[in-house]
Amino acid sequence: MHRRITSHVEAEPHSSGPQPDGDPEPNDNGNPEGEENHQSDNEEDPHNNNATPPPSPVRRSHRERRKAISDDYITYMSEDVDDIGKVEDPTSYKESIKSLNSSKWQIAMEDELKSMSSNDVWDLVEVPNDAKRVGCKWVYKTKYDPKGNIERFKARLVAKGFTQREGIDYNETFFPVSSKDSFRIVMALVAHFDLELHQMDVKMTFLNGDLNEDVYMTQPEGFVVEGKEYLACRLKKSIYGLKQASRQWYLKFDKIIRTFGFTENVKDNCIYLKFKGSRFTILVLYVDDILLACSDKDMLHETKNFLSSNFDMKDLGEASYVLGIEIYRDRSKGVLGLSQKAYFEQVLKKFNMHKCSGSPAPVVKGDKFGTFQCPRNQIETDQMKSVPYASVVGSIIPRISNGKAGTSPCCSRAVQVAARGDQEDLQIVIDHKFVINTATPSLLTQGSMGSSMPRNASLNLSVHVH
After folding, report:
1. Burial environment of residue 149 by CB neighbours within 10 A (0 to 12, 13 to 18, 19 or more)
2. A single Pfam family, by name (predicted)?
3. Average pLDDT over the chain, rounded to whole?
4. Assuming Cys at both sites, which of 34, 236, 348, 463 could form a disulfide with 353, CB separation 3.0 to 4.6 Å?
5. Same structural domain, 301 and 344
């Protein structure tokens, strides 16, 4: 009698029932069963000393695996949240010369090249045989004021940094940026000590950084020098788009500002502090935006003059609009506020909700949400899915609590609840009932109110644990 050897090396008797005349039945592998058993006996017979031992079972961990994000959260990503309701900008040079604002874009590009020429950014040279050219392109941006009106047209020549080679065209790229938490702390100090708060803008920011590597860039499209098409721009200073541009600007600014007596904050590398007796100045750097909070006007003017003597600066006076946040002050009452009313109005207009009435509170005691609010039929389900509820939530989340300094914390709880849910139908209902009809319209009123910081408020840090 034949024996079949299993994967656990246990012998089991083979069925000895009668077989029909002719060829033996094939098994699952398509071979006659008898031949397979015979081969198995020869290769895996336990009495055969030459038999190959079975492989050891794979050891698997029995530890419970936990997800990085719990199941009751749904992540949304909104596209171009800063440009909601705004005019689309050209994406290439050809689009700019064909657009309705072609003459304005042409002037903007000429201004950009004049600035680069005055800063001696590059020289036209022949490219060595062992060197590789880095491409460039025009980037267009329409600038708006706090009320959403067009302020100016900006054209920027940007290098195609993705064609750079590490170790040849660049080395280090790290560049610190001031956090939004630091911004809120500085605003609280300004309100508490009634400090002077001014803003300055650095023109052609990255052109201030010194370039240590030899980088050759193609001539800008639309402005190639006639008769010198074969030449390339040998960069002497870093420009936008280069991988090391941000770092070179930060190193240059850090080196110069320290010579004026400023010391860098240990926790936030883009916060600087200078003491002069009982007077002090706080400087906040966010790429090309500079905030100056000072306890003395003379010290404030000294700092402005020093910055203007080392960089091409634009003095914007008292700070009123920073990083998309509107700053309003009433120094007679000792109140400083942060608002993003213009942005929230754009969100409401995009989703056709700008005529909705605001709610004094997005969540009130007794509100209940559950599966009993789910659509009762397919018609209601299709009707709710036709509205981009998730896009509304994704547009609000970055602005209410974290992200852009969180100017509407009163609505954070409502939106956070709307951004979680275990069931798809329940999620749609929560988004619709909870955010669209209640939280979002209230942002029109809450957004205009923003966050207020009174002068007499305590500076003690309070931590609330749920």
Report:
1. exposed
2. RVT_2
3. 74
4. 348
5. no
